[in-house]
Amino acid sequence: MNRKVRQWFASAGALRRMLTAFAPYLGAGVAVTHVAEDFSSATVELRQRWYNTNYVGTHFGGSLYSMADPMYMLLLMRRLGSDYIVWDKSASIDFVRPGKGTVRAHFELTDERVEEIRRLTENGDKHLPEWNVDILDESGEVVARVHKVLYVRKKR
């Protein structure tokens, strides 16, 4: 990551503000409402508006997916530091029920998981960690489940 981009992510608050103003998030109506100071967690929400509602009156699926798209990659990049390569490898989304109103997703990256990734990549081997995150409506019902796979390797 170049120095200028690294400055954008220098603090949790800067990351939250930058992502909320990021054109794809802004256009989809996605807002990052919380990023932990140690980058161990984040919360993202999507309020239903005319521009992110589909033909049948529910959240547009692309907006639901975009809520989850960069979060684990960005959190892990910050937790591991610049000695690691972290990329999104694959993702899938399962739409469980129609989403209406405000929906939220919460992302957790535990110390144990970060240490496991460090251990598995310390010899330069790649590792493909996986995460699942639920997108919940206002009543706590699952609207969608996102499965993410990242590519992680220590730089040579």
Automatic annotation (TrEMBL):
Top-level division of the source organism's lineage: Bacteria
Listed transmembrane segments: none
Pfam families in UniProt: DUF4442
InterPro entries named in the record: DUF4442, HotDog_dom_sf
Keyword terms, alphabetized: Signal
SUPFAM superfamilies: Thioesterase/thiol ester dehydrase-isomerase
Stretch forming the signal peptide: 1-23
Protein name: DUF4442 domain-containing protein
Species, as recorded: Marinobacter qingdaonensis
